[in-house]
Amino acid sequence: MTKKEYTLQQMAELLGVERQGPANLVIRGVGPLQAAGPDQLSFLANPKYKSQLESSRAGAVIVHPSVPGVDRPRLLSLNPYWTMAKAAQLFHEPPDLPVGVHPTAVVAPDARIAPDAALGPLVHVGPGASIGSGTRIYGHVHIAGNVTVGDQCLIHPNVTILDGCRIGDRVIIHSGTVIGSDGFGFAQDDQGRSTKIPQTGIVVIEDDVEIGANCAVDRATFGVTRIGRGTKIDNLVQIAHNVEIGEHSIIVAQVGISGSVTLGKHVILGGQVGIAGHLTVGDGVRIGAKSAIAHSVPPGQDLMGIPAIPHKEWFRNYANWKRLPRMRDELARLRKRVDALEKELGRHGKDD
Amino acid sequence: MTKKEYTLQQMAELLGVERQGPANLVIRGVGPLQAAGPDQLSFLANPKYKSQLESSRAGAVIVHPSVPGVDRPRLLSLNPYWTMAKAAQLFHEPPDLPVGVHPTAVVAPDARIAPDAALGPLVHVGPGASIGSGTRIYGHVHIAGNVTVGDQCLIHPNVTILDGCRIGDRVIIHSGTVIGSDGFGFAQDDQGRSTKIPQTGIVVIEDDVEIGANCAVDRATFGVTRIGRGTKIDNLVQIAHNVEIGEHSIIVAQVGISGSVTLGKHVILGGQVGIAGHLTVGDGVRIGAKSAIAHSVPPGQDLMGIPAIPHKEWFRNYANWKRLPRMRDELARLRKRVDALEKELGRHGKDD
Amino acid sequence: MTKKEYTLQQMAELLGVERQGPANLVIRGVGPLQAAGPDQLSFLANPKYKSQLESSRAGAVIVHPSVPGVDRPRLLSLNPYWTMAKAAQLFHEPPDLPVGVHPTAVVAPDARIAPDAALGPLVHVGPGASIGSGTRIYGHVHIAGNVTVGDQCLIHPNVTILDGCRIGDRVIIHSGTVIGSDGFGFAQDDQGRSTKIPQTGIVVIEDDVEIGANCAVDRATFGVTRIGRGTKIDNLVQIAHNVEIGEHSIIVAQVGISGSVTLGKHVILGGQVGIAGHLTVGDGVRIGAKSAIAHSVPPGQDLMGIPAIPHKEWFRNYANWKRLPRMRDELARLRKRVDALEKELGRHGKDD
């Protein structure tokens, strides 16, 4: 879609890395080793794929300076995967959307729309809302009243952002996601019938957060549901009311986080993990896919399982579980040996 | 957002509870003990938080009459949490939406819209549909043909209600939810290729149901998928075709209920629970989060696990599972002792 | 909704099966044995329900030729369930949508819309997109730029299909589903902060695929995320970037498939299954509901569990797990017997 091109020297400067090879080599894109062509830059993130580098048609490659025997034009990086991401960003543009307000968009008269924001077809922006500079609101997005969306955001088609929620700068929200639905809060009478506890809080999404498709982030009962700066959330994730997620965490698809959970910074939750309500998960915790967190977790732990336990303990228990049939057999053999011993000793006794 | 206020006496009357303290104290909202200010009403739902009450700035508090030593202005309730919910409802209004049909809404000529209903921007209401009195249909909602929505409902932005489905009174449906998608029904030929079984039934949602964001409720193959009166459903829940859910049940986020399951009344399903097809789950059953229900469940049981078993049994088995390494060690020790006994007895035998 | 009718003879011809009974019997629909009336066709897919056939009011029935003692008008089929599906299709029409472009639809001037396609109210079709013959795009659907939708497709309300994705012929996509959201790809710096890897690939959905409500199918990082011909996907399913799914597979609700997974043909995944990244699952594999796939799976296997193991092995291990309390008791008894033996032998020793 894009027609951008850079020389290898320009890329080295833009990425802040050392170049080895022809300064004027023209690069028109980034691709994996097996697919990149002579005008593309590729990358060797893991030295074990070096044979793929040898057979690659890529015109240039990003490599770690310690990789021996690379004679192809190259950019040297201590973190080739990171440099690849930054290089690909140079070539990438989000889907086109003209600056200004599409004639079919419905925008409240008192909404503040930055002059260089772009609002697509059939968008709605409610009263008191504001849309920041350079932000793109794609078609069919519903922005309710008093919502704030910061600068340079991408709000993809069919997203819903509900009353009063606040979105920071450079936030990306993918299609179908709902920000600010009511939390799941009810009081029960003595017959077990539920009455709704009004959910009067909001959702705050800090800068540089990305949220995948068809997620649900509930507003707080009172106060704020918060997603910390730089955190990345995959598709179909449930974030309940009053959850607080720290900075730079990573939450994989179909995770469910119950109400009033506090997650630290740099937490990683694998796919389909569930966290019970009111728990605290410390900084740097990593939880394996499909685990269930039933107790608070101190910082730095690696857990897995249902319920989750430390990673090593889980593997030991699992090994024992698989060994159960053998344990049963062993138990049966021991019983027979004890039977025999008792019989023998009985005979002895008699013989005495 | 709201500017409502009541005196403590007015609140006591509206809530049907006893007041102790100044009748004319003005209350402008409801909040938790740590956050409520001098013009707000708070609540002590659990006596163990009584120290928070002492340090709270709340102007008044809802307490159980048995709590000793409360001298703050107060409302006495046998169920303070319920009374708090009802009090908060007095101050809460759903997001504003003017009565009438927004000029950008697309409404079929033969659709019946109650004069005091509100249809937001870019809403669609199909042929033969009807929208009841006081109901609010927020922006971007898609109501297909022949759908019935009752009175005093809140249908939040971007909800989809498909052909012929029937929604009762006072129903709340949150953004992104789909009511009446086709059930997952196919016949296979001898090559394992699927052909679609047309899904010709509907979904019926009874009065006072609330459904969260980004759920999917499939229409029946033939007949009706039904969600019983007063049942509350959280976000991202899957309800397959021909499911019948009883009254006043509670279904937490990311639950999946397979086709033709019958759930009783007052059932509680924890988050991420899955229920296999064609099962019956009795009244009052409670299933722990992330459990898998593989067999029908008699009324009144508490189950958990994958597959789910009675709660107490699960805890006992789990304790044994964690004790497996110790059992292995014990087994090894016993084997050595039996080895020694056999050797000893062998020597005895020889000595004899 | 439909007013179609056929004679029994017409149905036999359309379905390519043998008729027994009056050729002119008029059939106006298909229904289950307990609900079908005298002008409806029912079916006996499983001989164990034969007593229901006897009490059914159905005017005619589809049965296997081997079922004895059926004297009702009937169609004979070696696969009655398949024939029922095909018969029901004869009576079924998708929700009505007039051919042509609704006046409130927003269609880019260079989009190609087949003359007999139908675009509903408030639809968006972006630049360079094309919509095939006989395809119905229901209200509120968002088709982004350069998307291709084939012939005879049904794209239900509120679906989002993003830039450049390609949809085959006779594809059905249910409401709320998102095709072509960005894959979850980030590079981390040495501080654990993430930067986005632009997702420049697309999604290709082959002919005769059906995808349920509120699913998310991510575009590839580079290249293609592909869903093979004839595959059927239920609601709330997550399909990550670069996944390849073979033909005629069946994926039940709330499954999550991680990035770069390759699924074979005729694979069946039960509800809530999770598959870890970069694995290969062979042709004909069947995975039980709620399982976690942590390793690649050779063709033809039946697995279940967390982590998944062969079906029979899982049942054996589960039986042992339930027997753990008994094993503990047995171990305790053996220990006492060994205690006693040692004591006895000690006494013997002394006595000697």
What's the pLDDT, averaged over the residues of chain A?
Answer: 95
β-strand number of chain A: 40
Low-confidence sequence ranges of chain A: none
Summed up, the helix count of chain A is: 5
Which topology of the largest domain in chain A does CATH recognise? UDP N-Acetylglucosamine Acyltransferase, domain 1
CATH architecture field of the largest domain in chain A = 3 Solenoid
Q: What is the name of the CATH class of the largest domain in chain A?
A: Mainly Beta
Description:
The structure is a homotrimer of 352-residue chains. With 352 residues, the first copy, chain A, is α/β, with parallel strands linked by helices. The first copy, chain A, has 3 domains: 6-91, Udp-n-acetylmuramoylalanyl-d-glutamate--2,6- Diaminopimelate Ligase, Chain: A, domain 1; 100-311, Hexapeptide repeat proteins (UDP N-Acetylglucosamine Acyltransferase, domain 1), CATH 2.160.10.10; 322-351. Chain A is built from 5 helices and 40 strands. In chain A, the strands form 6 sheets. In chain A, strands 8-11-14-17-20-25-28-31-34-37-39-40 form a 12-stranded mixed sheet. Chain A has a 10-stranded parallel sheet with strand order 9-12-15-18-21-26-29-32-35-38, with no helix packed on it. A 9-stranded parallel sheet of chain A has the order 10-13-16-19-24-27-30-33-36, with no helix packed on it. Chain A is flat and about 100 Å long. The first copy, chain A, starts with 5 loop residues before the first strand and ends with a helix. Chains A and B meet through strand 22, strand 23, helix 4 and helix 5 of A and helix 3, helix 4 and helix 5 of B.
